[in-house]
Amino acid sequence: MKHTRRQASFTFPKRGGARPGAGRKRVAERALVPHRARPALSGRHPLHVTLRIVPGVQSLRSRGVHAVLCSALRDGAERFGFRVVHYGAVSNHLHLVCEAESEHALSRGMKGLSVRLAHAINRFLGRAGALFADRYHARELKAPRDVRHVLAYVFGNARKHGVLVTELLDPCSSAALFDGWKERPAARDGSTWLARARTWLLTIGWRKHGLLSIRELPRGGRDP
User: pTM score, two decimals?
Assistant: First the structure.
């Protein structure tokens, strides 16, 4: 009597597919910026750009870190058709008001600035590794009212959240360089250590809705 041998079958795990714990792990506590193609930009519109740092890094508003931050911003403020016109630092993220002649100029300028900031701050803190939790978030500002709102937000965010108590102008921002305050005359020489605005919206257009008050608080809204 013949015996038929049965071949044992094995099921090997497959790559991909839905399974518990699969997928890219989050670097930060908040959701990552979606990695989809960025839309084409018009060089006529300024941008609100946000960079968020990883947890556990010393506050960007601490004296030494802020000084290093300013130095890196000054050196990278105008490159490749990309310009940083204003900034505001919160403890764990950085707001920038920028201009870019194209999406390529924005990408190249932000890449260079991010590397410059990371190297400078990491060197000062004696740390290594990634500084930013994810890639930058950028929003194009297409209307005068949008630009005015973002300027008020960048300059007044720290005061709104109670970080500033007595000072009206945030020292961890470019508020002192800004020439659009109701209560202060514009600097006669127009001096700034950041880039000068060139777009109509950021130089003239936003003023159609009124100059900013140094006591003005930004209206509500969550950071990107």
Answer: 0.80
Q: Give the chain as a 3 state SS string.
A: CCCCCCCCCCCCCCCCCCCCCCCCCCCCCCCCCCCCCCCCCCCCCCEEEEEEECCCCCCCCCHHHHHHHHHHHHHCCEECCEEEEEEEECCCEEEEEEEECCHHHHHHHHHHHHHHHHHHHHHHHCCCCCCECCCCEEEECCCHHHHHHHHHHHHHHHHHCCCCCCCCCCCCECHHHCCCECCCCCCCCCCCCCCCCCCHHHHCHHHHHCCECCCCCCCCCCCC
Q: Which residues pair with 212 in a beta bridge?
A: 181
CB neighbourhood size of 89 (10 A): 27
Residue appearing with tokens 């505001």 = 88
- Please state, in angstroms and rounded to a whole number, the distance separating the CA atoms of residues 18 and 14: 10
pLDDT tens across 145-163, in order? 999 999 999 999 888 888 8
Query: What structural domains does the chain harbor?
Result: 47-209 (3.30.70.1290)
| pLDDT tens for each residue of 8-63 | 554 544 555 555 555 544 544 554 555 555 567 889 999 999 999 999 999 999 99
Residue % of the chain over a pLDDT of 90:
65
Residue 217: C-alpha distances to residues 172, 205, 213 (Å):
16, 21, 9
Residue 78 half-sphere exposure toward CB, CA atoms < 13 A: 9
